[in-house]
Structures are given as C-alpha cells and as structure tokens.
Amino acid sequence: MHLLKQMLHDRKLHFVQANQAVHEVAKEMAARNVGAIMVLDGTRLCGIFSERDLMTRAIAFANKVAA
Fold it and tell me: What CA dihedral angle connects 41, 47, 48 and 51, to 10 degrees?
C-alpha cells in the first residue's frame, strides 16, 4: 500500500489563504490548472477549495444574493 507522501513527493502543492476572495482563488486555480487547492489559515491547513465548491456554493450563493 502506498503512502500519500510517496505519491506526492514530486508534486508541486498549491495553497491560498482563507481570507482571499473567491474570485482570486478561482483565478489562481485556473492559472495553476488545478481542480482543487489547499486553504491555509496562516500556516495551518484548514481546508480544500475545489471546482465543485465553486459551482455548488459560490455560484449558487451569488445567484441567491442577486435574486
């Protein structure tokens, strides 16, 4: 069985800060060509933001606010 550190040892990991705007994070993900990005609160990992989060939460929230 493989360990995560074995699978990720040669990969560049991308991070954003929890206080960044959603549109900034979406731009960062597009620029890096990734479907998910780790979210830090300072130096502590506090979550992962994904394309699914963008579609189901951010877009849905924006549509609810606009209505």
Answer: -100
The model's pTM is 0.77
Q: What are the pLDDT digits (tens) for 26-52? A: 999 999 999 999 999 999 999 999 999
Q: Distance (Å, rounded) from C-alpha 52 to C-alpha 20?
A: 18
- Cα 49 to Cα 26: distance, rounded to the nearest angstrom: 9
Q: Which residue has the tokens 């060509």?
A: 33
Who contacts 15 (Cβ-Cβ below 8 Å, separation ≥6)?
37, 38, 39, 40
